[in-house]
Amino acid sequence: MQDKVVLVTGGARGIGAAMAAAFAAAGAKVMVTDVLKDVGLATVETIRQAGGQADFVEHDVRDEAAWEAAVAATVRNFGTLTTVVNNAGIEISAPIAELPIEVLDRLMSVNVRGLALGMKHGMRAMRPGGAAGKGGAILNLSSLAQLSASPGTGAYAATKAAVDRLTKVGAVEGGKFGWNIRVNCLYPGLIQTEMLEGLLRQQVRMGFFQNDEQVADYVVDHTPLGRLGTVQDIANAALFLCSDLASFVTGVGLSVDGGIALT
User: Fold this and answer.
1) Strands 29-34 and 5-9
2) Helices vs strands, H then E, count in the chain
3) pLDDT tens figures, 225-249
């Protein structure tokens, strides 16, 4: 990742922070963006203390002007932009018959609108004539949820299916238009994060399991590799897809789920 400049949304904590740290450790300059300013600044400081180069921009991915400012700040601070990682996202569970429309709107605004804006402004910056103008890579975070059907995840899964389709179309456009922009996505499985903890609690509240431990045991029992995933598992896959080792890889959705989608 030497000479790469990576913008990571939702980079303050969890998977985003792990990816930002992995990119920096591999030699990239990293712009961490998030709505969580204090946490984001702390993540950047941790990266710097480890010898990496990083900076932070407060950034609501739903806001187009905020996207323009984040991209401009990245190019201004680091000289270019080669990689955009659209990681920011939220998860809210509810059975379809009980789904509040405002919940659907919120999921769509962050997971689809926010990501589409990231692709739009990443591509504009990296295509010929853009602020960076030398091509690059976009990595989108989809989910295992769009590959399988679980009760209560319909709205969330729908947004992540949209991410998958945006990735495929973006890959075609990034290549066919002569921009030399690769677009791929990851399907994280059940990863040990605060988001997963919230998902487990929601599954219990909906009555599908008696407690969080029962949900976790069920997941592990149905995962061929026999464990939950870690944020580093996702960071390692992201590092490959955003690096020059994947220079002939585009339009791919890579499952990082311990094989649970197979069962």
Assistant:
1) parallel
2) 9, 7
3) 988 899 999 999 999 999 999 999 9
Structural domain boundaries in the chain: 5-189+230-262
Nearest to 86 by CA among 35, 45, 142: 142
d(CA 151, CA 132): 43
Is 156 among the catalytic positions?
Answer: yes
Q: Does domain 5-189+230-262 have CATH number 3.90.180.10?
A: no
- Catalytic one among 156, 167, 238, 255? 156
Tens-place pLDDT, residues 244-261: 999 999 999 999 999 987
Q: How many residues does the chain have?
A: 263
- At 5, the pLDDT band (50, 70, 90 cuts) reads very high
CB 164 within 8 A of CB 188: no
Residue 195 amino acid letter: M
The token pair at 177 is 């238009």
Q: State the angle between helix axes of 212-221 and 194-205 in degrees (0 to 180), rounded to the nearest 10.
A: 110
